[in-house]
Amino acid sequence: MSPSPVSSTPILRRTLIWSAVATGVLAVVAGGIGFAVAQGEGLVSGLLGVLLAALFLAITGISILIANRWYGDPLYVQLFFAIVLGGWLLKLGVFFLVMVLISGQPWVHPTVLFLSIVAGVLMSLVIDAVVLMKMRLPVVSDASLPTEVPEDRAPGVSKVDADGGAAS
Q1: CA–CA separation, 58 vs 63, rounded Å?
Q2: Rounded to whole angstroms, how far apart are CA atoms 59 and 81?
Q3: What is the arithmetic mean of pLDDT over 48-75?
């Protein structure tokens, strides 16, 4: 597969890789703290909260990477927003479904679950900020500028005359 011409693709890939590594570290920390606070319930709640945060935050990056595959297509903008919006709606629906299914379960410690979700979201925000500050992305990255503006030439002057060549 050829590399994507969209300049945001390497940034999104790097963000997803760093997030996966940080999620592993945060899962160990949240699981350990959850276990220390509420034994088995805390461990499960800490791990579940970190997993949910990582999954929901990764869906956006993955949906943008998938949408970028249609770059250059005449329907790229419509496809891009349809795919990204579909990802957001998927996240919203799954989040509500998961919250309804696990609310009131005896094996869930609500405080540990909530704090681990918040920790996962904060981790993702920090990674996004660091990656975006470290990556070099031109301000105008995917645009091509015209090489010549026809209105810049005087009326009745050919291109050869404008370049200093012989008059026609």
Answers
A1: 8
A2: 14
A3: 89
